[in-house]
Amino acid sequence: MAVVPVIGAPLVSAWLAGIVVNLLTNNPPEYYDIALRDFGLMLAALTLTRLAWAFARRPETERAPARESSRLGRFRARQA
Question: Using CB atoms within 10 A of its CB, is residue 16 exposed (0-12), middle (13-18) or buried (19+)?
């Protein structure tokens, strides 16, 4: 999933949604705490999905350039 979050994040969120539904329907009052925890994890996976989709759609020219460290920038400014 770390290599391809565009595919992995929706897969994990769907998997967690299935777990939540299973926990809510299997012995209902017993597993609410675990279902709530997994619901929070599902929201985090959905957030990662939105971020992965947003950054995957940006063209390469719109992406911000890599920032130089402050020392390297000062060194280059002195050399110019």
Answer: buried
pLDDT in tens, the chain (80 residues): 456 889 999 999 999 999 999 999 998 889 999 999 999 999 999 999 999 999 887 666 665 665 656 666 666 666 66
Q: Residue 45 in contact with residue 12, Cβ under 8 Å?
A: yes
Q: Which residues, 6+ apart, have CB-to-CB distance to 67 below 8 Å?
A: none
The secondary structure of 45-74 as a DSSP string is: HHHHHHHHHHHHHS-GGGSPPPPPPHHHHH
- 40 neighbors 21 (Cβ within 8 angstroms): no
